[in-house]
Write a structure and sequence with these properties.
This protein has 339 residues and is α/β, with parallel strands linked by helices.
Length: 339
C-alpha cells in the first residue's frame, strides 16, 4: 500500500483551502453550531477512471482529529465511472471537514485525469506495455502521486526513481539523445557504453539520432548481438527518416521497415519501443495498421485535458436539502472508506 504524506499543520490551518471554506468553518465554530451535512462528489464526463480515493482516505486520516465522527463512503481507485455518478460522500459535522473540499476535489481531478488518459492508452495498445514518461512535462513534486495514478491507469513502467519507488517499482528508461552527442553521434557505441556500465539493465538503443533508424538499429544489433534488448524510435514529428521520405515522425511504415531489416539480418529478438507524441488515437492507428511495436511510451498527452469534480451539500441532519438543480443521489456501489 502506498503511503501519502501531507503538510498536516498547513492543511489544518486552511493554507491550501479556498478561503470561503475556512470562513464557513469558523462561522460554525464561533456560532457553536454543528450541523450534520452530507456532501456528495461527482464529475460530468463519460468513461472516466477514478483515482485519488486512497489519497483522500489518508488525507482525512492524517489531518482530521475527530475522524470517527465522520461517515465516508466511496468507490475505489480504478473504478470506471459515468457522468454524474456519485463517487464519494462525506457525512458529519461540517466544521470538521469544510476546509478539505478544495484539497480532495483537486486530488480527484489530478489523479483521475492521469489514470483515465493512461487507461485509454493501455486499452488502445491491446495488451502491449505502455510506459509513462510524463515527469518532464510537469512540476517535479507531482511525480509520486502521478506515478500512482499512472499505475492505476495501467502503466507498465515509470521513468523517475521518485515515481517508481513510490509504487514499489524500478524506474525504466533508455538513452537520451544528449548522451549520443557526447559520444560523437555514434549510436551503437553509446549503446555499448550503456551496456558496459549498466549490464543488468535491458540495453535499448536510441536509433533515430541521424534520421536513419534502420542503419542505427542494425549497427547497434551487430555491435551488441544478444546484449541488445531493444531499439527505441523517437523521430520528431516534423522530420522524415531516410527510409520514409514521404512521412514524418514515427510512423507505421517506418516501424515495419525497421522490423523487417532486423528480422532479415537475424535480429528477430530485438524489441521495438516507440515514443514521441503518442496518445490513444495515435496508438489505435498503429494497432489498426498492425504495426510491429512491442512497447509504447507516452508523455505529455497523459497530462492533457480536464476532469472537474464537484462537491454538493445535499442533506442536513439526515434530511434532503440541496440547492436548486442538485439532489441527493444514492449509489449502491459506494463502500465505507474508513474501515
Amino acid at each position: 500500500m502506498v503511503k501519502f504524506s501531507f503538510p498536516i499543520a498547513k492543511i489544518q490551518r486552511g493554507n491550501y483551502s479556498d478561503v470561503y471554506f475556512n470562513r464557513a468553518e469558523k462561522i460554525l465554530i464561533k456560532d457553536k453550531y454543528h450541523p450534520t451535512l452530507t456532501l456528495q462528489v461527482f464529475q460530468k464526463q463519460k468513461g472516466v477512471t477514478l483515482c485519488g480515493i486512497e489519497e483522500i482516505k489518508q488525507l482525512f486520516q492524517q489531518t482530521v482529529n475527530n475522524i470517527s465522527q465522520l461517515k465516508i463512503r466511496s468507490l475505489k481507485d480504478g473504478d470506471q465511472i459515468s457522468a454524474w455518478e456519485t463517487v464519494l460522500t462525506i457525512e458529519g459535522d461540517y466544521s470538521l471537514f469544510a476546509h478539505l473540499e478544495t484539497i480532495y476535489l483537486g486530488i480527484l481531478a489530478r489523479r483521475s485525469l492521469i489514470a483515465t488518459n493512461l487507461h485509454r492508452a493501455v486499452a488502445a495498445a491491446k495488451g502491449k506495455p505502455v510506459l509513462y514518461f510524463g515527469a518532464r512535462f510537469d512540476y517535479f513534486l507531482n511525480q509520486e502521486g502521478d506515478a500512482y495514478a499512472a499505475s492505476i491507469g495501467g502503466a507498465s513502467g515509470i521513468s523517475t526513481p521518485a515515481g517508481a519507488s513510490f509504487i514499489n517499482q524500478t524506474p525504466v528508461g533508455t538513452i537520451p539523445h544528449a548522451l549520443i552527442v557526447a559520444y560523437q553521434g555514434n549510436i551503437a557505441q553509446t549503446a555499448v557504453k550503456f551496456n558496459q556500465y549498466f549490464p543488468k539493465i535491458n540495453t535499448i538503443s536510441l536509433v533515430d539520432f541521424n534520421n536513419n533508424c534502420i542503419k542505427g538499429a542494425l549497427e547497434s544489433a551487430k555491435k551488441l548481438g544478444k546484449k541488445l534488448w531493444g531499439v527505441r524510435l523517437d523521430t520528431a514529428e516534423n522530420i522524415s527518416d531516410v527510409s520514409t521520405p514521404q512521412q514524418t515522425g514515427v510512423n507505421p511504415l517506418l516501424i515495419k521497415k525497421v522490423r523487417q531489416a532486423l528480422n532479415n539480418n537475424g535480429f528477430n529478438w530485438v524489441k521495438i519501443i516507440v515514443s514521441g507524441g503518442f496518445n490513444p488515437e495515435k496508438i489505435k492507428r498503429f494497432e489498426k495498421a498492425k504495426t510491429p511495436v512491442d512497447i509504447y511510451a507516452v508523455g505529455s498527452n497523459i497530462l492533457s485535458g480536464q476532469i472537474d469534480f464537484t462537491a454538493d451539500a445535499v442533506r442536513l441532519n439526515g434530511k434532503n436539502l440541496a440547492k436548486t438543480g442538485r439532489n441527493y443521489s444514492s449509489n449502491p456501489r459506494l463502500k465505507s472508506l474508513l474501515i
